[in-house]
Amino acid sequence: MTLEPQGRTSITDPLNDDPDQRILRLFNHYRHDWMNDIQILMGYVQLKKYDKLSPLMEKIKAKVQQESYISKLGIPHLILHLLTFQAEVKELALDIRLEEEVHLSELENPEASAEEIIAVLDAFKEEATVSMEDESFLVLRLSREGQRLLLTAVYEGAYINERIAQKEAQLNAKRLAEGGSKLEAQNGERKIVWKLYWTYADVIHKEGDCDVC
Question: Is 33 or 198 the better-scoring residue by pLDDT?
Fold first, then answer.
């Protein structure tokens, strides 16, 4: 579903706050999150619902694994942005999925790649505010495909056609100016899929090697 632009009341964005404040709120969020898991675990034990313990532990294990993968991306401000986004942005539910460790430092331009990931997040966060009555979801997948790293962003929710097209054009202009490739986009009814590729630095170096020059 696409909507027409409407005026909205200005809302303070917690992602723009002082980094120290963001870290404190993030710590409080995870402390609260872990307390909830512990209380559920203790409740199952007290009620002798032992059959529910294994699924709960697997869920906790998977959550910890994803957080571990995120923490090893290698770009501190991006890691903080991703974790804070999950903890504090209420209008857009973010699900980050990594099947293995990804080290952005191995890319040709790590900082530019990190900024583009943040730009994707911010673009869809703005679209999610179009209709606060509807739930909006964003799934981010990072995976290696041969000699490139692929980011797949799948957004489900309301959006404004003209605005998302402008953001896509801005991101493409930046990528092309820096020697990258255009993002692949598929826009549908209440669903957008963006794919961005980055090349690993070792590929660039190998292509530039010459033993007989």
Answer: 198
